[in-house]
Amino acid sequence: MSDDAEKPLILWFRKDLRLDDNHALDGACATGRPIIPVFVREPSSAGTGPLGGAQAWWLHHSVVSLSASLEALGGSLNLASGDALDVLVGLIKSSGADTVMWNRRYDPAGIAIDTRIKRELELQGIKAKSFAGQLLHEPSRLKTGGGTPYRVYTPFWRALENAGEPPRPLDAPDAVRFAPVLDTSETLGSWGLLPTKPDWAQDFSQVWHAGEDAAREKLSDFLDQSLSGYKTNRDFPAKQTTSMLSPYLALGVISPGRIWEETRGLDVPADDLVHFRKELAWREFSYHLLYHFPKLPYENWNGRFDGFGWNNDSAQFNAWTRGMTGYPIVDAGMRQLWQHGFMHNRVRMIAASFLIKDLMIDWRRGETWFRDTLIDADPASNAASWQWVAGCGADASPFFRIFNPILQGEKFDRDGDYVREFVPELADLDNKYIHKPFAAPPSVLDKAGIELGETYPKPIVDHAAARDRALKAYNAVKDAA
To answer: What are the structural domains, with CATH classification, of the chain?
Structure first.
């Protein structure tokens, strides 16, 4: 056996914290060489780590789980902080490795960093090899007939369908040849990813369990219990009928290829299966947009909205973040977000519409808040979805489609179960008024123990007046175009 065959290679984990369907891991194992697994905590300015405080909590527990999986195979995950190139070069010098492998990332900051690292390593005679597998299809692959990126979701979905089934996922290896453990690894606790004073994430662990096994169990339970009827039931936040897989996808604890694979050949209504797969496709479309239009997180896709007359009232924004707007369905969503690091998708749209259109606050402020408070924060899906609601994004919902928070609540939380769970001060209010306590007679409020303005806020805006104001502002930019 040659000396080169005994040289270790570095396997760089990023947002792919799994052994299953991990193309870089598979490629590393195929060489037969000893492997040094590493996870690098890059500077926050790099934009490649956890997107906010809530996801930092999720990252901590996901890294713990990945470390345990590697240890079960006889290995150890090396942890290092700093500029990724500096860290990798240091590991190369201390270990004698001459190859680095990783799975690609598709956010603008990540692409720029990886391009620089690959160039610099190759100049130093170090092999650098990247792999696909984080998406169903590489974002550069699907193009319109004219060779341009897709700007509308439906044609993108058709193209994805016509591209054929994605490659079958790779099983996790039964054995891995690891290099000797290095003594330079940092400790995860020293990274300070977990909040302590106060521990605002104390309830997260009641809902979320990290790791591949938990992700696969979540997927299995969803397919068995909730995929049938998904198209209709997914809109009702009090029902446990969504997959809850987005946090695992966000850090690559499970791959979209594995999820797609597990939906093949199921005996469920076609509409439900297609609708669920379209959720995966929306994530693909979001990354397609971010890849081709890297300013998506901070620039209006539709430049006409650059002149939009935002209100940006700080007191109203703070009321929205705390779930104190006086509109129960909005407040329930914002409190679920704070309590669980997550919000039901239908309610995300309602809460986003309320911020943008009722309060006239710039969508970018809402997107930033969600980045910090969602454990499933995702640079592509967050940006694309906020711009979609704002009416300024690709294939966006028209701005003039303004959700009425009362009617949305009555339609999708008819009995008020969701509101009562997250806005307990309204728990004893009659169903008739659960989504509009401000319309309840004093006797009804007294019976429920509610004093508006004291135990629960009065509405911070009148929806009808706010709707008129938003449409007036929209017409101003529309007419100016």
So the answer is: 3-134 (3.40.50.620), 135-168+211-291 (1.25.40.80), 303-480 (1.10.579.10)
